Structure formats: structure tokens, C-alpha cells
């Protein structure tokens, strides 16, 4: 079960030592032999900025640089390579928001197996096209991975195709666990491993590899707050489905832990923490700007956990960047959210006198204060604006919280009524 361990969202798993994990290190090592020449040994990259915050070395395990753009090819190929000739002849079917889809599609292509992949209707277009590009037949439907999985199950029953589950199979867990073998080889003194977690295949596999060799290493699962099925499931002692999900991290938006992964994670994983949407946006922006790494929101979840509370995790820390497949439109939206969350965007409504030159004077003053104007809306007719005055809605590019506070304070000191929009009460951008 889980016990709440503070307000930051970290929960420690109370493991039952009598519970045996379905997948151990020997299965992971066997998977590594299967994957030789198929997957890459992805690099680790040092984050000096996070070093200072955490108080010791922080490394990124760059699975965003893996073939197909994520770790999923490891588990998919391991599963497909172990199918019998008769099973291969029937073909395979899978369900995924994109990363598992691409992994199955490429693995099937390499092994000469026909593949059909069910994807949610809102799956990122680049992931859909990449899956088709690897030769799989893609069928779109449903709003979530769980709904797509229902379609894949029906297809398997109707056609005899072998279902390649995105996480809930020992071969898939073993394949994903090869990431853990590489981590211990690349960062042998690692003390904490942070892993983005949806269904639990990557987390459980890494835990199998790490705990067998270094049982003192803390293995921490990171979930999006809007799709955090694991804390409640572990507290209940069994997988518990969520009533709904809402998160930009579609790669880890899984509404129910798997039966196999549940036993794996319950037996081996130490802790869970959850991160919010703003934290995910900040982490993706940080990864781009400071680490020069393109990661999807799910892949940035471990970075979000570090940025939220760096002192909580004992270094050396390895944060697994699990994937880099992101829709450019989603990326643009997330970057904008990340900039807003770090006070580099500021939206104001400023009331000024309705007289010639007043708007120009306001914008000149804003420029003098070092802000870059992105957008301006000048409202002269409104039931809420007194005669002789106008409201000016202005969006600004800023340099951070202190700059926001200085600008708002300066405008108010000049006699303007200033309303800061889109930030909570008490935000430093509100000024004095």
C-alpha cells in the first residue's frame, strides 16, 4: 500500500517482501540479447543546472533518441520476436497513443509480421503517420488508449491476431527493463531513478534490472496528476480504474494499471510522485532550452518532478526521458504554457483615459520598462468601462517574475488600474 509522504505528492510504496515480481533480471538480460543490433544503447546527458538544485549529479537517460523516438521498441520487439511461427502467421494487433504503436509497427516490419494498430482518434498526427510509415495498418477510434485497447481486443477475438499489449506482458516488461541495465552501466553510482509511468511496463522493467544489482537504489514512478492511477491502486492492493483522465502527457495517460505490471511494481518500486500540467510544461521548456532535448510531455515528467522539489531526491539521479514524439502544435501550446508558468508571458488589462495619444503613451512606457508587446486589444465600448476611459488588454513577453512585478508596480504607481489575468491570487506578477 501507499502512505502519503508530504504535500509535494510523493508516496512511498509499502512493499510486501513475499510478493514475487513476474519479471526478474535474468529475463531482462535475455531480452537484451534479443535486442542486440535492433535497439540503440541510448546516451546519458549531464544536467549541470539541475546538479546545483539537487545538490549532486543529475543525468538524463535519453530514450527520446531511441529508434522510433521512445523506449517502446524494446518491449515490442522482445514480445514479437518470441511469437511462434503460427502466431506470426496470424499477425498482431496493438493499441497505443503513438509510441507503442510505432514500436510494434517497426518490430513487425523487421520480423516480417503483419500489424494492425488501434489509436485514439485524437492521437498526434506525426505518431499516426510514423506508424503507417513503418507499414502497420492504423485504425483510429475512441478518446483514450483504454478505448483503443477495447477495439484491439475485439479485433484480436474476431481475426485471431495476437494482441501485443502496450505494457501488461512479461516479455514487454523484460524488454523495457533493458533501459535499467544500461543505466547501471552508464551511471554505476546512481542513487535515484525517476521513471515516467503510465501502465507500468517501463517502471517495472527498470526496477527488475536495478533492484537485482543495486537494491539500495530508489526507483520512483512519476505520474501526471490528471492520470494518476497508481497511488490509489497500490493503496487498494489491486488495480483500480480512474473515472476519467485529463493531461497533456498522453504517453502516460493510462486509466488502470495492468495485472502483471501491478505485481511487478508492487514488488519492486519504492515511491510514486505526481506532477501537474504546469510542471510538465515547465519541464518540457526546460528540456528544450537548457538540456537541448526534444521530449514529449510524458517524457518530461521526471524532469518536472525534479523541478518541483529537487531536494527530495538523493543524487546521483537518473531521469529517464522516455520519449520525444510530440505533435508540433502540441509542442507550441506546451511551450506557451511553460513560458506563462515561468512568468515569461504576462497578460494585463490596463485602464487608461480615452484621449488621443493615451494608448501610444502606455505602449511607450511598457517598452521603456523592457517588455515586448505581443498583442493589444483596445476596448472603448463596454458596459463595465466608465465614460471617458478605455480598457487595453495587452500580452507581453517578459524576463521572469521580478520583471513582471516591476512592470505591474510601475504602471500602478503611474495611476493606472491594472488587472493581471490568467494567474492565481498571490502570484508575484500581481505586484504590490
Automatic annotation (TrEMBL):
Broad enzyme group: lyase
InterPro entries linked: ACT-like_dom_sf, ACT_dom, ACT_ThrD-II-like, Ser/Thr_Dehydratase, Ser/Thr_deHydtase_PyrdxlP-BS, Thr_deHydtase_catblc, TrpB-like_PALP, TrpB-like_PALP_sf
Top-level taxon in the UniProt lineage: Bacteria
Keywords: Allosteric enzyme, Amino-acid biosynthesis, Branched-chain amino acid biosynthesis, Isoleucine biosynthesis, Lyase, Pyridoxal phosphate
Pathway it works in: Amino-acid degradation; L-threonine degradation via propanoate pathway; propanoate from L-threonine: step 1/4; Amino-acid biosynthesis; L-isoleucine biosynthesis; 2-oxobutanoate from L-threonine: step 1/1
Molecular functions per Gene Ontology: L-serine ammonia-lyase activity; pyridoxal phosphate binding; threonine deaminase activity
Similarity comment text for this entry: Belongs to the serine/threonine dehydratase family.
Protein known as: L-threonine dehydratase catabolic TdcB
Species annotation: Pseudonocardia halophobica
Gene name of the encoded protein: ilvA_1
Amino acid at each position: 500500500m501507499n502512505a502519503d509522504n508530504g504535500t509535494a505528492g510523493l508516496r512511498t510504496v509499502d512493499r510486501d517482501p513475499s510478493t514475487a515480481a513476474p519479471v526478474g533480471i535474468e529475463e531482462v538480460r535475455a531480452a537484451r540479447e534479443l535486442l542486440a543490433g535492433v535497439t540503440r544503447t541510448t546516451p546519458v546527458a549531464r544536467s549541470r543546472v539541475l546538479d546545483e538544485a539537487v545538490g549532486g549529479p543529475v543525468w538524463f537517460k535519453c530514450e527520446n533518441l531511441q529508434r522510433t523516438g521512445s523506449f517502446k521498441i524494446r518491449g515490442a520487439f522482445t514480445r514479437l520476436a518470441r511469437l511462434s511461427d503460427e502466431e506470426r502467421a496470424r499477425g498482431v494487433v496493438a493499441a497505443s497513443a503513438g509510441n507503442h504503436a510505432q514500436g510494434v509497427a517497426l518490430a513487425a516490419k523487421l520480423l516480417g509480421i503483419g500489424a494492425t494498430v488501434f489509436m485514439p482518434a485524437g492521437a498526434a498526427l506525426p505518431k499516426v503517420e510514423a506508424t503507417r510509415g513503418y507499414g502497420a495498418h492504423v485504425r483510429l477510434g475512441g478518446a483514450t488508449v483504454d478505448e483503443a485497447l477495447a477495439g484491439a481486443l475485439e479485433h484480436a477475438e474476431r481475426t485471431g491476431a495476437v494482441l501485443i499489449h502496450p505494457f501488461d506482458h512479461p516479455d514487454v516488461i523484460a524488454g523495457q527493463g533493458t533501459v535499467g541495465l544500461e543505466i547501471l552501466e552508464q551511471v554505476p553510482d546512481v542513487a535515484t531513478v525517476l521513471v515516467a509511468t503510465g501502465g507500468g511496463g517501463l517502471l517495472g522493467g527498470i526496477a527488475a534490472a536495478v533492484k537485482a544489482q543495486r537494491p539500495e537504489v530508489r526507483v520512483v514512478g512519476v505520474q501526471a496528476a490528471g492520470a494518476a492511477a497508481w497511488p490509489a491502486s497500490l493503496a487498494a492492493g489491486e488495480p483500480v480504474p480512474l473515472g476519467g483522465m485529463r493531461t497533456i502527457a498522453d504517453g502516460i495517460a493510462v486509466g488502470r494499471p495492468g495485472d502483471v505490471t501491478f505485481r511487478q511494481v508492487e514488488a519492486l518500486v519504492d515511491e510514486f510522485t505526481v506532477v501537474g500540467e504546469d510542471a510538465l510544461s515547465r519541464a518540457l521548456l526546460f528540456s528544450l532550452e537548457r538540456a537541448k532535448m526534444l521530449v514529449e510531455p510524458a517524457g518530461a515528467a521526471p524532469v518536472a518532478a525534479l523541478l518541483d522539489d529537487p531536494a527530495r531526491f538523493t543524487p546521483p539521479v537518473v531521469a529517464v526521458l522516455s520519449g520525444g514524439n510530440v505533435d508540433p502544435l502540441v509542442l507550441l501550446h506546451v511551450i506557451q504554457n511553460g513560458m506563462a508558468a515561468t512568468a515569461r508571458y504576462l497578460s494585463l488589462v490596463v485602464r487608461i483615459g480615452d484621449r488621443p495619444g493615451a494608448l501610444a503613451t502606455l505602449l511607450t512606457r511598457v517598452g521603456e520598462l523592457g517588455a515586448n508587446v505581443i498583442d493589444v486589444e483596445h476596448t472603448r465600448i463596454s458596459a463595465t468601462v466608465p465614460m471617458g476611459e478605455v480598457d487595453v488588454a495587452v500580452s507581453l513577453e517578459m524576463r521572469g517574475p521580478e520583471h513582471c512585478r516591476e512592470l505591474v508596480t510601475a504602471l500602478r504607481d503611474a495611476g493606472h488600474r491594472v488587472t493581471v489575468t490568467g494567474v492565481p491570487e498571490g502570484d508575484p506578477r500581481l505586484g504590490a
